[in-house]
Predict the 3D structure of the following.
Amino acid sequence: MAELIPLLLQGAWITIQITFIGSILAIVVAILAALGRLSPWRPLRWFSVAYIELFRGTSLLVQLFWLFFVLPLPPFNLELSAYTVAIVGLGLHIGAYGAEVMRGAIGSVGKGQYEASTALNMTPSTRFRRIILPQALLAAIAPGTNLLIELLKNTSLVSLITLSDLTFRARQLDQATFETLTIFSLTLLLYFILAQAINFAMRGVERRLSRGRLRGGLS
Amino acid sequence: MNLWDWDYVWQILPDLLRASVNTLGITLVGFMIAVVLGLFLAVARRSQKAWLSWPVTLVIEFIRSTPLLIQVYFLYYVLPAYGVNLTAMQAGILGIGLHYACYIAEVYRGGLDSVARSQWEAVTALNFAPWTAYRTIILPQAIRPILPPLGNYLVAMLKDTPVLSAITVVEIMQQAKNVGSESFRYLEPITLVGLFFLALSVALAYLVRRLEVRLELR
């Protein structure tokens, strides 16, 4: 067992990288798509709805396979590494779910906040950046945490497009050593620990974002 | 080379449709497992007896925060060493059913918690047996708010079935890869599979929204 752990940890490191970079992409995309959906400009709204429905509706593995197997062939001829596909695929997939969370969160910011920012003569971009977004992010943390854990769990699928993440390593070690029970139990445990780490980190973020806010406020 | 080859589409469509029957079957059987098992898990988790509620809580949280793919590997590769031989299809259905049972248990728990406390007190005052109380008083009231989330999990399960291709279950995604590898054309098969999931999940999501509206109108 002692010689299994370092190899599994190597895979876990890839999983952590994919989860971290994928999460950042997902959060940025979610905010942009939510704004797009709420935009008064119709083409932008349609584009955002199309993106959200497409990536929520077509199953992650199909999306990863499409990016990995279809894009390198003509007429696209765009060859991405498995690592890039993993980050882009997971980021866009979870970003589409996150957009709906963000839309709800932006909608939950009180109307008075908009009126007050207008009364203070803020430009729309200042209003969004300084007043609306900080409150919306706080409201989005609880559902957002669940989505980030979904993202972590979904990283296991990148093993099927040849990326040597934790799941890939587990399968490889299993085939080489036949210590099936130990390997898969350890793997499950590692994923569980990573999920708890996300929980813990997000609680920290929540504390930070709510610093200086009155109790009994938004969340 | 054509961007999109319709002849090829017609040629592979029968194979994909045959495999889509498997996808739908896995989803439905898995959903039935999840709905039944989830109820038992939810009731056990809410139990007053710590020896019951604690382990069940732990199992639910553990399964919910670890990947379906590894759980399916576990059932398919670990169990045979202990004399339990499942086919890929059985392991897949069981795996997806167990995974979603833990999500659905939380839906039931929310539903049960939403039943007013006075109902529980009345049931106790009238000296109902626990099972009779659940069956005749509590569940009928708890069921309405849980129907839409159950529908959402049905859609989520459908979209998770491609994961089972990793243990050689021939569902629609695996079939698309097979036909694609024969002709080295992946664009059509994988896009068709995407459209299949998109159409079904948009349709099901629409039905869930209709259900929500109807339940609120009553």
Observations:
- Helices of chain B lie at 6-45, 50-64, 68-78, 88-114, 117-125, 130-160, 172-183, 187-217.
- Chain B has eight helices and no strands.
- Residues 6-45 of chain B form the longest helix (40 residues).
- The two ends of chain B are 57 Å apart (CA to CA).
